[in-house]
Specification:
Number of strands: 24
Structural class: alpha+beta
Radius of gyration: 28 Å
Length: about 425
């Protein structure tokens, strides 16, 4: 028995008592259910807490017998209404879908109806409430919307599930994939890391699917979809079908990293594949820059080449630098925060002509404290920060295109360098 399910009052049972319709609580939410006991095991189908739906289910059970079939594929079980002289046989799932969507039963038959969350199957529970059932052969914009930047008109896709929101650059192909249920399931919040994940159907077979963080899927799209874009037709299908081989190409141990540590920002200039070791060491450094200092890192790409461009600011004055690889970007952050000891004990003192002086905080001293328990930002906060980030990203890319000489190259402090070169590099930051 699943601890999340509490069956309450029995409202109806068939003549033999084999099937009962009851009120229930599932994960502290009210619903109705149909239950059946076979060989001392209880099987339960949950459906919407809607009196009209309840009435329709009971009326059908009064007219039609019901049976249960176990699916040998391991995908749960199914309750079916028998055929009568006036009504065709159909599954409870199809019946509920038709009622939820005000469809004639004939139009609902034959659809490839799937459940988003199947985690309760092992407990003999199938959650067929409206929010958990979808047409795997159709399209659904549930949890997916498109917004425009108020100044530039640039469009972004916003995906959300419960309190989790993630944003990405809009493209027709990406939007098509995320809203076509035979390709991708509805993005859902992952219980392990709190991020959105997506179920990808790359082949028409029992094991032809994989679950990935939404950000990783987005990065795969931006990294490899261009290979298929020139096909006159079938580019999306070819890309999806090749997801396993593309992952092999990325290589093992490669994580999808968010450069500015904002995991809700899945825009392409904020994502980069990097070794897990580097990703873990960077922690959330980039988001902790505070006080007089600001930092905005983005990815610049040209073919297979990439660089990390950084707009570093002190008291609103911008300086620009470029890291040619992930190792250099990690070294930059560890130097700024004094992690590698290069400027760990640095003090900044400003001296006046009259002999007075005052101390200014270093980036390490003015950084926000590390916090792993911050509540997720709401939609208004995210959209505001997305617009600000987008403006900064456009500014940096334009600057690099027009005046690349203004970007000084960060020299990895782990490599041998003359002391005067090191000092000049640090002074440029401070």
């Amino acid at each position: 028995m699943n601890d999340d399910l509490e069956i309450l009052e029995a409202l109806f049972q068939t003549k033999t008592g084999a099937y009962r319709v009851c009120t229930a609580m599932y994960k502290n939410e009210p619903c109705y259910c149909v239950t059946h006991i076979r060989d001392s095991d209880q099987y339960t189908v949950l459906f919407e807490y809607d009196k009209e739906i309840l009435k329709a289910v009971i009326q059908r059970l009064k007219r039609t017998k019901m049976t249960m079939d176990n699916k040998k594929s391991g995908s749960g079980f199914i309750f079916k209404f028998h055929k009568t002289s006036h009504e065709a046989a159909l599954s409870l799932r199809t019946f509920l879908w038709a009622k939820y969507n005000n469809l004639p039963l004939k139009k609902a038959k034959g659809l490839n109806l799937e459940l988003s969350d199947k985690s309760s199957f092992s407990s003999g529970i199938m959650d067929m409430r409206k929010a958990n059932i979808y047409d795997a052969g159709g399209t659904s914009t549930s949890g997916i919307s498109v917004i425009s930047h108020p100044e530039t008109g640039n469009e972004f896709i916003v995906a959300h599930d419960r309190d989790r929101i993630e944003c990405m650059d809009y493209s027709p192909e990406l939007y098509q994939m995320l809203t076509t249920r035979r390709i991708c399931g509805k993005p859902q919040k992952c219980p392990d890391n709190g991020r959105l994940c997506v179920r990808i159907h790359f082949a028409q077979c029992k094991d032809g699917w994989t679950i990935k963080n939404l950000s990783r899927f987005i990065l795969l799209y931006h990294s490899y979809f261009g290979r298929y874009a020139n096909y006159k037709s079938g580019a999306v299908t070819r890309f999806i079908h090749n997801i396993p081989s593309l992952e092999n190409e990325v290589g093992t141990g490669k994580h999808c990293a968010h450069l500015n540590a904002q995991s809700w920002n899945d825009c392409k200039e904020n994502l980069l594949f990097m070794d897990d070791d580097f990703n873990q060491k960077m922690s959330n450094y980039a988001s902790r820059i505070s006080g007089a200092f600001e930092m905005l890192p983005i990815v610049w790409r040209s073919g297979n080449d990439y660089r990390i461009l950084i707009e570093w600011s002190k008291n609103g004055e911008h300086r620009y630098l470029v890291c040619n690889c992930v190792e250099d970007y990690l070294d930059f952050q560890e130097t700024v925060f004094g992690v590698n000891g290069k400027i760990g004990n640095l003090q900044i003192n400003l001296f006046y002509r009259d002999g007075r002086f005052r101390q200014e905080p270093t980036p390490k001293q003015s950084a926000k404290p590390r916090c792993n328990t911050e509540p997720p930002p709401d939609m208004d906060t995210i959209l505001s920060e997305l617009q600000e980030w987008s403006n900064g990203k456009d500014r940096i890319l334009q600057k690099y295109q027009e005046s690349p000489e203004c970007f000084w190259v960060w020299r990895n402090t782990q490599n041998p360098m003359a002391i005067d070169v090191f000092v000049r590099q640090i002074l440029r930051m401070l």
